[in-house]
Specification:
Length: about 350
Amino acid sequence: MPSARQVRWAKFRVLTVSVAAVIILSILAYLLTGGSLLLERAPVYLYLPDATGLGPGAPVRVDGIGVGKVRSVTLSGSSEPNRVVKVTMAVERGRLASIPDDSTAQVASETVVGDKFVDVSSGTSAHYVSPGGEIAFKGSPELLKTLDLGQFQQRLKVVSALLDDIEQGRSDLGQFVQGEQMYDDLRKRFAQIQSGIRAAASTTSDVGRELHTDRLYRQISQPLLDLDGSLARLQSGQGAAGQLLRDSAQYEKLRSDAEDLRHSIADLRASEFLQSDSLYAGWNRRVSSLIESVDALNRSPAMTTSQAYDNLNGVARELQDTVRDFRQNPRKFMRLKVF
């Protein structure tokens, strides 16, 4: 049964992970909404003849600047042709001061086949749209102004050139469609990959042996088991380290030895040799006297001239000659003298 400390620690970990998850989710929500999640929004309405391609979540832009999103698209119930669909927009309350009340809106798209958005064109009035106000709809003839025919024609030319390259086999895609070389290369590569996978799955290869046997698992788990055993022996008091942790006698002995060493160092620091200047001066005088004696010996004639060395060398040579003669003719030195 887990102890109370383990239960408290588990609760603390669960609480920490939960708080971290909530913080991460909050940051993700803030980033996904473009940093406008906590901004106060006000409803603004727009009536359209139809809402083809426009849905909830579509951007709302004023002169190209995003100010909100479409909240809902519903039928208004009106019989007027230009007020069949009611669009409810959630606009940032701080941006309402930049939208004059004579502004107009229309449904536009980035490209011909792109997603729809509400494009608001600012007016010139001195008064601005209030929360819950309505923006007038710009008729369909004005929609043609948002279509760049030159850009559309240029893109058609690019698509036509791409199709010509594919049809004539000049591009990689055209070679793949018209010829068989790329298909054969892909088949060879897939065959090589398949053979590599089969070789890896085979028990005769190194990778296959690692996948089908537990040798790698044993190599990884054995050091962990050894470490666990060492920690268990240490915890149970086995070995010198375990006894040191379990038995306080060795610890007290180490403390006693350390205390004795401290006292020895303190006694040495308090000794006369380290505390007395006269003793240091006496040792200094003795060393200076020894240095002067060595200098006097070095200045003596025996060390400065070669006469003494020559005399000693001559005596050594005579002794060497005498010993050599004695070894060669010992009778020469054995004389009897009769009194």
